[in-house]
Amino acid sequence: MEAKFFRFLKIVGVGFKARAESEGRLLYLKLGYSHKVELTVPPAVRVFCFKPNIVCCTGIDKQRVHQFAAAVRSCKSPEVYKGKGIMYIDEVIKKQQGKKSK
């Protein structure tokens, strides 16, 4: 399979990790929940983990690659106060200021 489309995801947070298994068919995510999140990768998409916090979704169908990347991102979307979560590599999260205490 010749991969033409790529989508890189960055996982930010203490203890947040990703692991791809069985030739890019399963993706396991540790996202601070009491359980691991297990995602089955669609047939037209492959998943690679370069580091424990960098995930690459590749494939020949742009719509399926981007849709699976969005499904991974929705498991823990980035929060605006600390910037933790799963975000695209080229995405910029604008942090909000927290509540000021007296």
UniProtKB/TrEMBL annotation:
GO cellular component entries: ribonucleoprotein complex; ribosome
Family of the protein in this entry: Belongs to the universal ribosomal protein uL6 family.
Highest rank taxon of the organism: Eukaryota
One Pfam family recorded for the sequence: Ribosomal_L6
GO molecular function, one term: rRNA binding
Ranges for domain Large ribosomal subunit protein uL6 alpha-beta: 14-88
The entry's keywords: Ribonucleoprotein, Ribosomal protein
Protein name: Large ribosomal subunit protein uL6 alpha-beta domain-containing protein
Gene3D superfamilies named in the record: Ribosomal protein L6, alpha-beta domain
Source organism of the structure: Nelumbo nucifera (Sacred lotus)
